[in-house]
């Protein structure tokens, strides 16, 4: 039987399949904006061929299928989605447009604000009211709902977002509206804020609800088309969808809550980084992923994935817990351009897969990072994408010459190197944002260099931020897909319980605990997770009375008693001191939310002696040879670095074996990627076939011998 994981990115779709013997096959194909299902079938067909089966036989023998998708976030970034109406409490329909008082650029009042998600005439105030404690003080007007239904039909509305005031304290009015509306208008898609993001923060809750209403019909149509197509091709098991928090859900839930899948692909990379950190015994790890469209950074700290209670995407706040991933537009297809002042910029716009970079020869005219790497000699033009694409160096040369080199008075190699350096500076800034600006010392981290493009920048990036160790995993080019193999079903429930921690009645606390437990157990049962396989993590969002942001604190005991309050307070003050450099233990604490995270228990990771055998477009697993060290390669190439072309060694990944040590400068060619070793780097392949690179030479690090 086979387990398949697919990560469909903006430029490439990555595939990995594992069999019962522990072997893994991978492939990578270009994405298609016109027909997003076509790359999936093409990639699965290639995997079936590697397994020496027809596609129908291959899918018929599959017992797990996991998908990471960018359909939702692409629709958001492109301004697409279902035509949506917003129902809110009468008098509050402009909250979506008023936003928050703070500006992203506080000194620039001319910065364009994100587009209002719902025009004013489609924002309707419902006659109803809850008070701040969730007590109904004005009943829902059923007569108005009939008028609303008639109006929405006339406007050809496809989806309805409902976000009523204080629904996070009592969802009764939202539920009542939905039931009445669907009785009048069967089949209309409705998103309730109380079911999606039941917590305080009216603006953030409204935006999250509206985005879900806009995007879910788009994702639902895509997933249903995919399911029908794969079932026709022989797939017999359900499709699992990766979520922002690193967990999995099924097609039913994903179709109802698209905002939970906006970072489903990058979340797989974080999950893979977590597994790599455990395997390599690296408690502090920066996971840096550079694909065709973006550069993503996340952290593994104290062997745990870093989470954030909410994120911002394209200027819109998403009030949902998700893995803390920082993204910048610096992928292989990111376009280099000159601003009005003549300064060289890179990204955030991408050439995508079609037409792609100029060197693809598919009609692209803009110079990209990939074009620059080709001119610098870092990419083999005859062996791109596993040898299935021949790059056009002449077209890359002309694009850089016309758009960058001539306006700046540079030679084409100098311009290409400038593009490389600008892209590198964007990556350094992104890593600094996730480490130094959060109070973490990057020198205490190792760097996991993953994605098809990052290994070309990894050693320079590590040196730029002070990191001394880089790990390039065996499956680096398809790392997000590989990480999805470690994902399991995961459900989180939340209740707003706003009040002074020590003054919350025990009966209220226990009631919330029971409700949360029942909610997650019901969903896990629906997903088929048996009680013995469930793990529960309880936490509370706490803050000082005069604070705006909360801190999430885990706790073990769930019974309401003074010992629980004391433990929560102690951990909060300790965490606050660590994060902000001070604490105020004399102050009382406000409890904002109670959370319950329920997970399907993780399977034990493989030991070093039981590593998966990797097969990439070949029929034979690698075999270990007797450990030895070699100083030089018999193959050389010319690479433009630091202002001049220089000869560097070329090594091929397929020829490496555990114990072999390499010294930079050198290029290591691997299917779907190339690793650049800078002059001050030394690399060694470990028993798991991960390449460990040390930045900066120690006097007695390695002893090289002549063959």
What is the secondary structure topology, with strand pairs?
Elements: E1 2-8, E2 12-19, E3 23-30, H1 38-50, H2 55-60, E4 62-68, H3 71-77, E5 84-89, H4 95-98, E6 123-126, E7 129-130, E8 136-138, H5 142-154, E9 159-163, H6 172-184, E10 189-192, H7 193-196, H8 202-233, E11 239-242, E12 248-250, H9 251-256, H10 264-280, E13 285-290, E14 295-301, E15 304-305, E16 307-308, E17 311-313, E18 316-318, E19 322-323, E20 326-328, E21 334-338, E22 344-350, H11 369-375, H12 393-408, H13 412-434, E23 446-450, H14 458-465, E24 469-472, H15 479-484, E25 490-500, H16 506-527, E26 534-543, E27 551-555, H17 562-580, E28 590-600, E29 613-616, E30 636-641, E31 644-652, E32 661-663, E33 666-670, E34 673-677, E35 681-685, E36 691-695
Helix pairs in contact: 3-8, 5-6, 11-12, 11-13, 12-13, 13-14
Description:
This protein has 707 residues and is of the alpha/beta class. Among the domains are: 117 residues, Nucleotidyltransferase, domain 5, CATH 3.30.420.40; 133 residues, no CATH class; 109 residues, Dna Ligase, domain 1 (2-Layer Sandwich); 88 residues, no CATH class. It contains 17 helices and 36 strands. Strands 13, 14, 15, 20, 23, 24, 32, 35 and 36 form a 9-stranded mixed sheet that branches. The radius of gyration is 27 Å and the shape is globular.
């Amino acid at each position: 039987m086979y387990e398949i994981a697919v990560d469909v990115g903006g430029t490439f779709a990555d595939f990995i399949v594992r069999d019962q013997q522990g072997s893994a096959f991978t492939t990578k194909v270009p994405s298609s904006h016109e027909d997003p299902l076509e790359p999936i079938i093409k990639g699965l067909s290639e995997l079936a061929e590697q397994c020496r089966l027809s596609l129908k036989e291959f899918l018929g023998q599959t017992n797990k299928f996991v998908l990471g998708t960018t359909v939702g976030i692409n629709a958001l970034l492109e301004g697409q989605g279902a035509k949506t109406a917003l129902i809110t409490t009468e008098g509050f329909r402009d909250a979506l447009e008023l936003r928050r008082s703070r500006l992203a650029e506080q000194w620039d009042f001319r910065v364009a604000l994100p587009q209002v998600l719902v025009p004013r005439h489609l924002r309707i105030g419902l006659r109803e009211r809850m008070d701040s404690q969730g007590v109904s003080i004005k009943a829902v007007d059923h007569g108005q709902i009939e008028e609303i239904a008639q109006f929405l039909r006339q406007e050809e509305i496809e989806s309805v977002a409902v976000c009523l005031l204080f629904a996070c304290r009592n969802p009764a009015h939202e539920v009542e509206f939905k039931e009445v509306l669907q009785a009048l208008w069967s089949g209309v898609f409705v998103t309730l804020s109380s079911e999606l993001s039941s917590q305080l923060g009216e603006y953030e809750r409204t935006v999250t609800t509206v985005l879900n209403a806009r995007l879910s019909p788009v994702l639902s149509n895509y997933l249903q088309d995919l399911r029908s197509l794969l079932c026709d091709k022989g797939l017999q098991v359900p499709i699992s969808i990766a979520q922002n928090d690193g967990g999995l859900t099924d097609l039913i839930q994903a179709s109802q809550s698209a905002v939970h899948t906006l970072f489903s692909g990058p979340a797989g990379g974080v999950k893979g980084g977590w597994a790599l950190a455990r395997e390599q015994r690296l408690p502090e790890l920066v996971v840096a992923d550079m694909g065709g469209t973006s550069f993503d950074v996340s952290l593994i700290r104290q062997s745990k994935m870093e989470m954030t209670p909410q994120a911002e995407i394209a200027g819109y706040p998403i009030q949902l817990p998700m893995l803390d991933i920082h993204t910048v537009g610096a992928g292989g297809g990111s376009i280099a351009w000159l601003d009005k002042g003549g300064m060289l910029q890179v990204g955030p716009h991408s050439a995508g897969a079609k037409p792609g970079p100029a060197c693809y020869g598919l009609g692209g005219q803009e110079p990209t990072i990939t074009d620059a790497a080709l001119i610098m000699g870092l990419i083999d033009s005859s062996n791109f994408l596993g040898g299935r694409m021949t790059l056009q160096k002449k077209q890359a040369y002309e694009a850089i010459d016309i758009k960058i080199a001539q306006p700046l008075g540079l030679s084409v190699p100098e311009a290409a190197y400038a593009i490389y350096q600008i892209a590198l500076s964007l990556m350094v800034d992104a890593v600094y944002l996730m480490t130094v600006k959060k109070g973490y010392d990057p020198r205490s981290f190792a760097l996991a260099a993953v994605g098809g493009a990052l290994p070309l920048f990894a050693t320079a990036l590590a040196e730029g931020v002070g990191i001394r160790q880089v790990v390039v995993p065996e499956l680096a080019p398809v790392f997000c897909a590989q990480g999805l193999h470690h994902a399991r079903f995961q459900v989180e429930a939340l209740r707003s319980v706003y009040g002074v921690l020590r003054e919350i009645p025990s009966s209220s606390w226990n009631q919330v605990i029971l409700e949360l437990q029942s909610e997650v157990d019901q969903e896990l049962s629906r997903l088929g997770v048996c009680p013995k396989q469930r793990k529960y993590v309880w936490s509370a969002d706490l803050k000082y009375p005069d604070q705006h942001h909360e801190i999430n604190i885990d706790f073990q005991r769930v019974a309401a008693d003074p010992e629980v309050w004391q433990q929560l307070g102690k951990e909060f003050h300790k965490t606050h001191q660590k994060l902000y450099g001070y604490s105020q233990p004399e102050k009382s604490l406000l409890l904002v939310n109670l959370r319950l995270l329920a997970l399907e228990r993780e399977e034990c990771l493989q030991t070093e002696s039981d590593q998966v055998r990797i097969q990439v477009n070949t029929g034979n697993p690698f075999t270990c040879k007797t450990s030895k060290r070699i100083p030089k390669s018999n193959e050389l190439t010319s690479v433009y670095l630091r202002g001049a072309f220089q000869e560097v060694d070329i090594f091929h990944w397929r020829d490496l074996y555990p114990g072999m040590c390499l010294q930079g400068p050198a290029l290591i060619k691997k299917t779907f990627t190339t690793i650049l070793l800078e002059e001050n780097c030394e690399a060694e392949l470990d028993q798991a076939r991960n390449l460990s690179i040390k930045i900066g030479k120690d006097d007695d690090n390695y002893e090289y011998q002549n063959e």
